[in-house]
Amino acid sequence: MRITLFIPCFVDSLYPNVGMSMVKILEKLGHQVECPEEIACCGQPAFNSGYWEESRAVAEPVLARLRQSEVVVIASGSCGAMLKVFYPQMFAKTEWAEAANELSPKVWEFSDFLVSKLGVTDLGAKFPAKVTFHDGCHGLRELGIKKAPRMLLEKVSGLELVEMPDAETCCGFGGTFAAKFPMISTAMGEVKCSNAQTTGADYIVSNDSSCLMHVQGLLSRQQSPIKTIHLAEILANS
Predict the structure, then answer these.
(1) Is the domain of 168 the same as that of 136?
(2) Tens of pLDDT along 158-216?
(3) 194 and 209 share one domain
């Protein structure tokens, strides 16, 4: 299968190892991977802020580049929801409506692609640590992804998965929400960190780097020993 890998802007800039881990895994499974460098942002920040016209200007080159792809795999539940769920809404009644509707079923969040599309749960990964999983809001609520990342983690050699209390509660990042309401965002994040700490986990794992960025910042300020890591980085560890 020829897979088009969409690397979100914050992953490209801040967490390149996440993208490289995904490439390593997909190529190990025998697939051909392309990663178009000319597109980066999906337009979500402007969309979430209500600036749909500005968001469409950013999203149109993405649609133009991805519309002919066989399948699009993305390293973020948040950006995956943008392409899969919100593009058809945002481009409705425009000249790009057909392209948005054609792209939507081709878009897969990484963990869901491995489990639901490829039928893969065991990648031969090794990660001797106790971890707890954080469900990113868009991946959970918009894409319905809950079981796939946990199925993958359960097959990792040496890994112990412990669920935190209120695992489905938002971490408080929310993209522009954290900038507009920093005190509320911080308070929500501190609750998430506290819930994770009750598990005794060494790592908080998620399939969304934006959530991990927020949580890791709070953990570092608290001088907590818990670290954060993207699911793909664990699965690529052999």
Answers:
(1) yes
(2) 999 999 999 899 998 887 888 889 999 999 999 999 999 999 999 999 999 999 999 99
(3) yes
At 85-115, the pLDDT tens digits run 999 999 999 999 999 999 999 999 999 999 9
Residue at which a domain ends, from 63, 88, 116? 116
3-state SS class at 107: strand
Q: Which domain holds residue 127?
A: 122-235
Scan for tokens 């319905």, then name that residue. Answer: 144
- How far, in Å, CA of 110 to CA of 80, rounded? 9
Tell me the pLDDT of the chain averaged across its residues.
Answer: 94
Q: Which among 53, 210, 82 has a CA at the least distance from the CA of 143?
A: 82
Q: What is the rounded CA–CA span in Å between residue 25 and residue 121? A: 12
Rounded to two decimals, the pTM is: 0.93
CA gap 152, 120 in Å, rounded: 8
Angle at 18 between CA 125 and CA 73, to 5 degrees: 90
Return the H-helix or E-strand segment holding 209: helix 209-221
Which of 101, 116, 131 marks a domain boundary?
116
In whole angstroms, give the CA distance from residue 14 to residue 223. Answer: 21
Strand order in the sheet with 32-34: 32-34, 2-6, 71-74, 107-109
